[in-house]
Amino acid sequence: xTIAVSLLVNDGVVLAADSASTLIxxxxxxxxxxxxxxxNANKIFNLRKGLPIGAMTWGAGNIGNASxxxxxxxxxxxxxxxxxxxxxxxxIGKSYSIEHIAELVREYFYDxxxxxTFKDAELKPQVGFFVVGYSSNExxxxxxxxxxxxxxxxxxxxLRSKGEPGITWSGQPEAISRLVLGFGTGLPLVxxxxxxxxxxxxxxxIGILQQNLTVPLVVSAMPFQDAIDLAEFLVNVTINFSRFAxxxxxxxxxxxxxxxxxxxxxxxxxxKHYYNRELNPEDNYGPVEHHQPTTEKRRx
Length: 300
What we know:
The chain contains 7 helices and 16 strands.
């Protein structure tokens, strides 16, 4: 499992996620069983270096034998023009839209990879993506969601109107749902089974509860640093909720956070590396700066 948070304000969009990756198998009785939880998965990506475009994933961490992280980097090569074997339509130039990029992400992951891999599988894993950022010459960031459930792909779907602030979370939603909405994901079932609310009335009941209980944590004018702090807080809440709740801790590991703004573009706020950056000063995101002490400091 995972927690993936996308938070949009006037100054940009923040992506925040944990690093847990859960290995699950089925018992002979057909029940899911957690085999292991790894805490170093990569879930946030810059889709085109130098452009304010990012993506985040949740759900299954691989398609076939390749991790989502590796597949995202393969896609980034197409977007940058480094991989020309699939045609020029994949290269992102100076004029582009986030909607079109989201459509390409869907085509790549669902049509090209997911469908051939799982066409004969009984259990089709759930996979989701946020594709976010700024279209060329647009003043506001956009968020699109793509979700594959039961082998069927929904999206890309625009999450909110341009300029409208908000938070979207996916993966393991329980903790944030209780905190922000005022109720957990199991409420519809309780209303129907325990309180006798007819199934057709439940959406209206949930709507009324959400309208009256939701805490408005995000406003358009929120400073970008506060938006970053809030996204970090929400991921930490879910990590600690998973830690103390019964069962395996399926959300955890290091936090990763990226912020995308109109003028600064895609910037890492928190990021883990599987290698030592001092031994590898030239990574994919620029050299590590080494500052020499001044003459005055050396004298001390």
